[in-house]
Specification:
This protein is α+β, with helices and mostly antiparallel strands. It is built from 3 helices and 5 strands; from the N terminus they run αβββαββα.
Length: 143
């Protein structure tokens, strides 16, 4: 854990995060600044600044969780598709230096000009409602 890392603070329970899933190795939360409603972040509990610092086996387990999360997000939000993204370093637009994978639901009409939809701060109550819907779908898809 890094004391200055917002994701480590969320993992430790010191900061709010709309939690969807947690196991001993990974946490899935709602992105507070989503590209679209339902934008989630999949991250390791252990702090790694970038993907190159993670052991290969841990990277594999991280990415094994991503399709399960994506399936739940698409189902809960009735999305038409999704993007998966992962940034490493400031030059790659990594804002929080803690490995995390973005799962972004996409909708047919969310990008008429082909650009990414604008990010916006989402109230905690709305994030909690979306997290609950997605958490329910993860529970269903894990059976």
């Amino acid at each position: 854990m890094s004391k200055s890392c917002i994701f480590c603070s969320i993992i430790a329970g010191e900061e709010n995060g709309a939690q969807i899933y947690r196991d001993p190795n990974f946490l899935v939360i709602m992105d507070k600044y989503p590209i679209n409603p339902g934008h989630t972040l999949v991250m390791p509990i252990k702090h790694y600044e970038n993907l190159l610092q993670m052991p290969s086996a841990a990277v594999g387990r991280l990415y094994a969780l991503v399709p399960r999360v994506a399936k739940a997000v698409v189902s809960a939000l009735k999305a038409d598709g999704f993007n998966v993204g992962q940034n490493n370093g400031i030059a790659a637009n990594q804002i929080v230096p803690h490995v995390h994978v973005h799962v972004v639901p996409r909708f047919k009409d969310d990008s008429p000009d082909g650009k990414w939809p604008a990010r916006r701060v989402t109230p905690q109550e709305e994030l909690a409602k979306l997290a609950h819907k997605i958490k329910h779908e993860i529970t269903l898809t894990s059976k």
